[in-house]
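Let's practice the habit of predicting before peeking. Look at the sequence and jot down your guess about where helices and strands might fall. Then scroll down.
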Amino acid sequence: MKPETLLAGVTELFRHAPAFAEKTLCVDIVANPNAGGFRRPYYSRKRLGELKEIVARAQALPVRTNPVNVRLHLTERCGHAAAIVQRILDRSTSNGIDSCHIIMTAGGDGTSLETAERLTALPEVAKDRFGLVRLPLGTGNDGSEGRDLYVALGRFLQPAVLERRAAIKVTPSEEGGAVPRYSFNIASVGLDAYVAEMTNRLKRRFPGDSYKFWVNVATLFYDRVYRVEPMRMRAWDADGNEVLAREGATLLVAMGASGFRQYGANKKILPTADNCVVISQTGLLRKLLLKGPIEQGRHESIPELLHFSASRLSIEYDQRIPLQCDGETAELARCDFPLSMELVPRAYNIIAPAMGSS
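Done guessing? Here is the structure:
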């Protein structure tokens, strides 16, 4: 499937879509033409079949009355999605009353992250002019609105609403000079960030899903690349009550925008309603034994795992360590600590099915 094929299908879908029937719609598709859903035959064929089925369902509905304008924008490099989306936001004619502006991402986690960051940065009075839909056109699609186009695009075949979602703001110490960044799925430091970095490096040369490969390799070599030293953590709930104070050698700390989240192509790192997990350092053999259950979300009775819910984390650490936000990585130095991870409620809008619709 090519991005132009997606454009044609989405355009036809919106000729009939009952979602926001009372409004004029602006729809901008921000597509990475190198994403797995376009370039890799297996994913491309699946997405094309889903698109054709959704279009066929739409064509059985009446033609909508109010107009829709659908445009396609192709990214050319890392960071390009952010620039494209900023131009879209600046030039939008949506006034939030009789029109609605929908922004679709058609790519991987990087495209989605750059787009959602721009929506989060909008002034509060402007946020309800825009809604985001992240199409599953990557190979992982952990942060998308559904793992197939039946779910992601099918929401437009029924009444829909704007629904606010939380984000995670990750703020390094001012002493290090690093700027804050956002995550809209899971932010973490430690082993899984190293896996994400190695996966990204391999993808640049050999596009595809290499996450499973690097999970196995990183389990063996992480301790040789990064020293695992005692980490000091504190956590608070939304009311400011302390829910955790902990110090110890730590393999991984992850915070989700909510519970019941996964990353790395459906690895269930947060399989419960709790939005945080800490994994303590352990021996190599024990890591190899735990790798499978952790990936599959079978976390019961694993003493090295601690699940809890929090609105803010503070982490102090005396060594360098990798950080990942929705698959995008960076390396933190000693000067970047203390590090804060904080939930930002109602940060941006997604398009969601209206209550009671199916």
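How did you do? The radius of gyration is 21 Å.
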